[in-house]
Amino acid sequence: MSSNDITEWLMSLDNEQLDRVQEVLQKKIVEKKEFEAAQKEKKMRSVPNYTSKVEDLAELQGLDLSGLMREIARR
Q1: pLDDT by 10s per residue, the chain, length 75
Q2: Is 48 exposed, middle or buried (0-12, 13-18, 19+ CB in 10 A)?
Q3: Number of structural domains, the chain?
Q4: What is the pTM of this model?
Q5: How many C-beta atoms lie closer than 10 Å to residue 20's C-beta?
Q6: Is the sign of the CA dihedral 59, 63, 66, 72 positive or negative?
Q7: Angstrom distance (rounded) from CA 54 to CA 47
Q8: Which domain holds residue 15?
Q9: Residue 13: CB partners within 8 Å, gap ≥ 6?
């Protein structure tokens, strides 16, 4: 569905239908933010306390320290 199709569809709706679409979209936004926050919290809780290596911690967080280290070495 292109943006033109969406625009045409929205323009065909009456005010009550538009209000309902807005409510549904706002609910989905809240759900997505809650899901992302829960995922982040879950990821933070999964970090083992015994890990002392910086690289291991970075990997758990999805960070690439090797790229950062290469960039620093170039400077």
Answers
A1: 788 899 999 999 999 999 999 999 999 999 999 999 998 888 777 655 554 577 777 777 777 777 767 777 777
A2: exposed
A3: 1
A4: 0.52
A5: 11
A6: negative
A7: 12
A8: 3-74
A9: 21
